[in-house]
C-alpha cells in the first residue's frame, strides 16, 4: 500500500516517513511540504492513502483535500491536525475524507486509520467522535452563521476564541499580523459581534466550541 505524507514541517515528514516505512505492507510514495506540492505529488506518484496536515501556509489542507478528492476520487485522505475543535473536521468528513486524527495519535492508531482508509472505511479518533457528537444537535439548528466562513477564517476564529494574541496567530498560520487583524475585523463584521468575548459566546451557542 502506497502512502504519501503532506506536512509543512520537515521534521514531521521525516519522522512519519521513518516510522511508517518500518510497518509491514506500507510503502512511502513520497512527501510534500504544501497543498500545492501535494497536487503534484499525487499526480506523479499515485498513492493509495495520503496523510494531510490541516494547517499549512499557502493552500491549506482543507482546500488541497477538496481539490484532490475531485481530481482523484479513489484517493483516500487521512487528515492530521493539532486540534479537533471547530467545524472544519465535520466539514472535511462530510466532504469525503477517510479519516481525521490529531498529531498526538499513536503509531498504532495512525496505522489503523491508514489501513481502514485503504479498505474504503473511515476512521475518526475517539476524541473527535465525542466532539462531533456534542456539536451535532447545535449544528442542526437553522441559520448557523459559521457555515459561511472560509477555511482560513475558521482557523483564525478558533485561535481568537482561545485567547491567542494576533502575533501568535500570525506565527502559527504563517500570516502577517496585519492580515490576521484584517481577518479578525472581517469575522466580527460577518458574525455581527463587536469583540472577541461576543465571538466566543456565539461560537459556544452554535456548537463551534464545546
TrEMBL record:
UniProt xrefs under Gene3D superfamilies: 3.40.50.2300
GO molecular function: DNA binding
Alphabetical keyword list: DNA-binding, Phosphoprotein, Transcription, Transcription regulation, Two-component regulatory system
PANTHER family noted in UniProt: RESPONSE REGULATOR UVRY (PTHR43214:SF3), TWO-COMPONENT RESPONSE REGULATOR (PTHR43214)
Protein name: DNA-binding response regulator
One GO process term, biological-process aspect: phosphorelay signal transduction system
InterPro entries given in the database record: CheY-like_superfamily, NreC/VraR/RcsB-like_REC, Sig_transdc_resp-reg_C-effctor, Sig_transdc_resp-reg_receiver, Tscrpt_reg_LuxR_C, WalR-like
Domain HTH luxR-type as annotated: residue spans: 142-207
Domain Response regulatory: 2-118
UniProt-listed SUPFAM superfamilies: C-terminal effector domain of the bipartite response regulators (SSF46894), CheY-like (SSF52172)
Modified residues (4-aspartylphosphate): 53
Amino acid at each position: 500500500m502506497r502512502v504519501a505524507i503532506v506536512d509543512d514541517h520537515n521534521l514531521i515528514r521525516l519522522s512519519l516517513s521513518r516510522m511508517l516505512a518500518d510497518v509491514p505492507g506500507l510503502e512511502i510514495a513520497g512527501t510534500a511540504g504544501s497543498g500545492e506540492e501535494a497536487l503534484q505529488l499525487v499526480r506523479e506518484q499515485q498513492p493509495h492513502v495520503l496523510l494531510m496536515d490541516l494547517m499549512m501556509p499557502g493552500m491549506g489542507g482543507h482546500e488541497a483535500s477538496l481539490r484532490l478528492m475531485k481530481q482523484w476520487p479513489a484517493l483516500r485522505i487521512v487528515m492530521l491536525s493539532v486540534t479537533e475543535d471547530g467545524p472544519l473536521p465535520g466539514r472535511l468528513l462530510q466532504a469525503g475524507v477517510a479519516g481525521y486524527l490529531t498529531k498526538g495519535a499513536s503509531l498504532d492508531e495512525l496505522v489503523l486509520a491508514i489501513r481502514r482508509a485503504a479498505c474504503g472505511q473511515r476512521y475518526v479518533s475517539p476524541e473527535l467522535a465525542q466532539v462531533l457528537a456534542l456539536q451535532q444537535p447545535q449544528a442542526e439548528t437553522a441559520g448557523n452563521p459559521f457555515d459561511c466562513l472560509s477555511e482560513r477564517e475558521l482557523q483564525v476564529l478558533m485561535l481568537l476564541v482561545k485567547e491567542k494574541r494576533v502575533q501568535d496567530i500570525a506565527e502559527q498560520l504563517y500570516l502577517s499580523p496585519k492580515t490576521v487583524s484584517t481577518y479578525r475585523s472581517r469575522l466580527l463584521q460577518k458574525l455581527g459581534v463587536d469583540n472577541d468575548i461576543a465571538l466566543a459566546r456565539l461560537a459556544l451557542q452554535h456548537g463551534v466550541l464545546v
